[in-house]
Every structure is written in C-alpha cells, then in structure tokens.
Design goal:
The chain has about 120 residues and is an all-beta fold. About 0% of the residues lie in helices and about 60% in strands. The termini are far apart.
C-alpha cells in the first residue's frame, strides 16, 4: 500500500506561482511513476504532468512551459511547480502513484484557486 498526502494548494494570482508537494509513504519501492491530475468543477479529471523513476516527464499541452514536475528522494516527494498561473488552472489537484503491475493510488486532493 502507498499513502499520498498533498500540500501547497491555496489561492494564487494570475501570472503568479504556486508549488504543490506530494509526500508518499508505505511501499514506495512499488511505485513506477507519479503524476498530478486536476479536476475543475463540472469537468473530468485530467492529467497535468507525470514523471517516472528514470525522470521521463510528460505534460498536458495546456501547462507546457508553465508547470514543472520533479521528484526527490526516489519517489518519496514529488513536486509540481506552477508558474504563470491562469484562472483556468483553478481546480482540485490530485497526486497519483502508479505501481508496477496493476492498481493505482490517489491522494485526497488540494484546492488551487487562481484569481484574475
């Protein structure tokens, strides 16, 4: 089992920055990749960014050049640096861990609100 706890959400201004953190605990050795998803009101949850143990990253087109995903201490900590924030970035952001094999783990989510 893997437990994920997000932090760092809150209120940001358009053009500003926020950094989200995700702390993983438990069977961290079983994690092959981690990601950030987000879900805005009335919309489906969408992938924002992902990172593998080999530091291969992937970004949604809407955040490329503005957001950066990174990790440290193996997969114990994963960050999402969000720059040049836009009001459309407002959503609940979820940390996600993909284990080797089947299954998935989710954090409880953290609210990000960007004011114009």
């Amino acid at each position: 089992q893997v437990q994920l706890v997000e932090s760092g959400g809150g209120l940001g201004q358009a053009g500003g920055s926020l950094r989200l953190s995700c702390a993983a605990s438990g069977s961290i050795f079983s994690i092959s990749a981690m990601a950030w998803y987000r879900q805005a009101p009335g919309k489906q949850r969408e992938l924002v960014a992902s990172i593998t143990r080999s530091d291969s990253t992937n970004y949604a087109d809407s955040v490329k050049g503005r957001f950066t995903i990174s990790r440290e201490n193996a997969m114990k900590l994963v960050y999402l640096q969000m720059n040049s924030l836009k009001p459309e970035d407002t959503a609940v952001y979820y940390c996600y861990a993909k284990p080797y094999g089947t299954g998935s783990y989710w954090g409880q989510g953290t609210q990000v609100t960007v004011s114009s």
